[in-house]
Amino acid sequence: MIPNSPATPAPALYPLIEDTRHLTTLLDVIRWAASRMDEHQVFLGHGTTQYWDEAVWLVLDSLRLPLNLDSAHWQAKLTPGELTAVLGLVRRRCLEHIPTAYLLNRAWFMGEPYYVDERVLIPRSPFAALIAERFSPWFTAEKPPESLLDIGTGSGCLALALAAHFPAAWVVASDISFDALSVAARNVQDFQQDERVHLMQSDLLDDLVDDSGQPLIFDLIISNPPYVDPDEAGDLPREYHFEPALGLYAEQRGMALVERMLDTAGSHLSPQGRLFVEVGNGKRLIDESFPHHKLTWLTEADGLVSLDAAIFTIDRATLGHWRG
Ligand SMILES: C[S@@+](CC[C@H](N)C(=O)[O-])C[C@H]1O[C@@H](n2cnc3c(N)ncnc32)[C@H](O)[C@@H]1O
To answer: Can you give the pLDDT at residue 4?
Structure first.
């Protein structure tokens, strides 16, 4: 008997090379890609939640076809060159578990395409719902925020979405990572927002000062900071290991930067200003560590799709005693 042999042998995987000879149309390739992704258990959650959608995204976007392509065109044949290129991407997705957004250097956020690579997190923040609602009811159309800050901007997706939804506001997008700011700069240029979205390198709020050293003041500050406990890194699907560690992990079980932000944001908010921070599943930790805290958790009524992706808000007056 072979020591440690599994009781049931693992099912053979369909070969990712020999099996592709009969694929000719878009539909063939999408169907095959979806089945192989399921078979190889690639992780979803960086843009889609279904293997079929992930396959549609990978195949159509790599061919520079619209993602809502009429299915009447799905019988179109790929050229041999296209077939080789697309199948190569599907193989890398399945065998190396590289997220689709990095394979394509493109992620979609709130219906807009962003350049991404492994220097930035793949956009997927639940802030999308709040931005779409223009942070109602905290801000209104009559009194919108005029100065906005996105801390830890990564690709710049949140800052650019803010700029699009508050067209009269000026926007600062900050990050500690020069690499991330290089990607954000490319997106700011692609969206032709150089005049309105200002990139600044800063360790949280520490370096956000004007020419005379005074803190820059904002009506609305948002942040999707790193909040994953480094001890959980080993449990994350392989796809996460392609994302920058600086964008994912923070000390104190993920909450180090969130706490620092809460302690310092007050001096950067206008009297009517508000801070919104995404903390993922850090909600439980905050509720346990600070049972009397003054943070307001957003709910589904505020447009959040999933409460696993927690966001809190707090106004300037309350920030001074946020621990309660
Ligand atoms: C979770 S990612 C968010 C990226 C983007 N805002 C999004 O939602 O897709 C966190 C970002 O915070 C940046 N970051 C990490 N530590 C920071 C710090 N001390 N100060 C400012 N930014 C920081 C990382 O470089 C990364 O781009």
So the answer is: 47
Domains 18-104 and 120-319 fall in the same CATH topology: no
Please tell me the predicted confidence (pLDDT) of residue 1: 37
Query: Residue 121 C-alpha to ligand 1 middle, in angstroms?
Result: 8
179 C-alpha vs ligand 1 centroid, how far in Å?
11
**CATH number for region 18-104:** 1.10.8
What is the predicted pLDDT for the residue at 19?
76
Determine the pLDDT at residue 320. Answer: 93
Domain assignments of the chain as residue spans, ordered by start: 18-104, 120-319
- Ligand 1 nearest-atom number relative to CA 122: 9
Residues within 6 Å of ligand 1 by CB: 120-121, 123, 125, 151-155, 157-158, 175-177, 180, 203-204, 224-226, 246-247, 257
pLDDT in the model for residue 304: 65
What CATH architecture applies to the domain 120-319?
3-Layer(aba) Sandwich (3.40)
Residue 3 Cα distances to 6, 7, 8, 10, angstroms: 9, 11, 14, 16
Mean pLDDT by 10 residues, the chain (324 residues): 49 71 95 95 93 97 96 94 96 96 97 98 95 94 96 98 97 98 98 97 97 96 97 96 97 96 98 96 93 93 70 96 95
User: Would you state the pLDDT for residue 10?
Assistant: 59
